[in-house]
Design goal:
This protein is α+β, with helices and mostly antiparallel strands. Strands 1, 2, 3, 4, 5, 6, 7 and 8 form an eight-stranded mixed β-sheet that branches.
């Protein structure tokens, strides 16, 4: 799938940046090494050192009905799990067992066991009753995790013990491959054959 990719050294929020793109440039992904105004649900702020997370947003117009938009955080979370698993298994002799506790918590959190590994933020815009498009932001901890008052956090390095995550070239390569697989799966899943039962089954697995 042809997805436009933009890489910014830093920005306020990737979800804000993607809305600046003309719709004829969609689907697009904007990624950055650092956000100054990164946010989660209910306006929660997320800050971390540059280069320690996957920070990106996908913008596109899904083919699903407006009533099905509530499924997007779950679709994005399941897609994040499957993209991460695929790349890590391709890259090294990692046991499938490390993914036993990897799960998506409704509506938008990615966890390894009881520790938050990342999060999803979906924002839709309308003109009247017509959907203009959807921005899906993701933050995934690579080598360290932000301190959060009400929950434990972790990173992919803590989960896998792969020292390669501290290599800038590997980390960027992982990020780009992850975003390609993640965004492609989201768009493919939300085509005209959208099946909520299939998404629910993958989530419950």
């Amino acid at each position: 799938m042809n997805i436009n990719f933009v890489d910014l050294e830093s920005c306020g929020s990737t979800n804000d940046e993607v809305w600046k793109l003309n719709s004829n440039q969609w689907p697009s992904v904007i990624a950055t090494s650092f956000q100054t105004k990164g946010r989660g649900r209910r306006g929660h702020q997320w800050q971390q050192a540059p280069g320690t997370q996957v920070l990106a947003s996908l913008i596109f117009k899904p083919k699903i009905s407006i009533l099905s938009l509530n499924w997007l955080p779950l679709i994005a979370g399941v897609s994040a799990f499957e993209a991460t698993r695929k790349i890590l298994l391709e890259d090294s002799q990692i046991s499938e067992n490390i993914f036993e506790n990897f799960r998506v918590r409704w509506p938008n959190d990615i966890y390894d066991g009881e520790k938050k590994l990342g999060g999803i933020l979906c924002e839709s815009r309308f003109q009247g009753n017509a959907l203009l498009g959807v921005a899906i932001g993701i933050g995934l901890n690579l080598v360290s995790a932000p301190t959060v008052a009400d929950r434990s956090t972790c990173s992919l390095f803590e989960m896998t013990r792969k020292p390669e995550f501290f290599d800038d070239n590997y980390a960027k390569n992982f990020r780009n491959r992850f975003l390609s697989a993640w965004s492609d799966q989201i768009i493919t899943t939300t085509d005209s054959s959208f099946d909520t039962s299939a998404i629910r089954t993958k989530w419950l697995e």
